[in-house]
Design goal:
Helix content is 46%, strand content 16%. It has a six-stranded parallel β-sheet. Strands 1-8 form a two-stranded parallel sheet. The longest helix has 23 residues. The chain is globular.
Length: 232
């Protein structure tokens, strides 16, 4: 992994890219959150974020995030699950994460909601929607998201704060732009129908963050461009 100085240089460059993307899009500087993705990086990656006064990171796996939390003991750090969650790990995820961005089915959402109700607490989440129609990605289809509106609105313990998507692997930037635009349009439609603000649009990574910002992203997820190559 990179040194802290290299990380900080990478961070400064990414922030410049985000700010420039916002200016070109006519959006306010500071209106997009950078979520460092620390998956498959050592705990020091999270420490780097903490030193840089970033207090929210993204992880793909419950066990890896749980181990890092225990070893670091950084109470102010918030943890987002951005990878696919198996339903049998729903309880462990609820105990580990502050937000689950990858609620990709009604079955999973219902299970998480029931677990939280049993513990009498609430948790933020995003609905993952496969707007790029990538067969290799998880997520609701757009139609499934619309049709299940009443059901996911009934989750009293799982608070839906917005939507998340991952651009398809094939098709390059044009496919990414289309996927991002579709997520924004879907959010606007669902917000109007439900009365919920659904303010969060988590979309865009290091290779397509400018396109995501142009289409309304509120959060971009970046890993290797900050920390260097991952060790799998």
């Amino acid at each position: 992994m990179v040194s802290y100085n290299e990380f900080f240089e990478n961070l400064s460059g990414l922030r410049d890219r985000i700010d420039e993307g916002l200016r070109k899009s006519g959006r306010a500087v500071g209106s997009v959150c950078l979520l460092p993705v620390t998956k498959n990086h050592p705990p020091e990656a999270v420490e780097f974020c903490h030193r840089a006064e970033i207090h929210r990171v993204g992880e793909n796996r419950v066990q890896e995030a749980s181990g890092k939390k225990e070893s670091l003991d950084l109470d102010e750090m918030k943890w987002d699950l951005i990878g696919h969650l198996q339903s049998n790990k729903a309880g462990a995820a609820c105990r580990t994460f502050d937000c689950i961005q990858s609620v990709d089915s009604l079955k999973l959402g219902g299970k998480i909601n029931r677990f939280l109700e049993g513990e009498n607490r609430k948790l933020a989440c995003l609905l993952q929607v496969n707007t790029g129609e990538d067969p290799g990605k998880f997520g609701f289809t757009e139609e499934e998201t619309r049709e299940s509106l009443n059901e996911w609105m009934s989750w009293e313990a799982l608070e839906v704060e917005g939507l998340m998507t991952i651009a398809p692997l094939e098709g390059g930037r044009d496919a990414a732009v289309k996927a991002f635009a579709r997520l924004r349009c879907l959010r606007d439609e669902l917000s109007a129908a439900s009365g919920l603000p659904l303010k969060e649009l988590s979309m865009g990574m290091s290779g397509d963050l400018e396109e995501a910002i142009r289409e309304g992203s509120t959060m971009v997820r970046v890993g290797s461009a900050l920390f260097g190559e991952r060790f799998y």
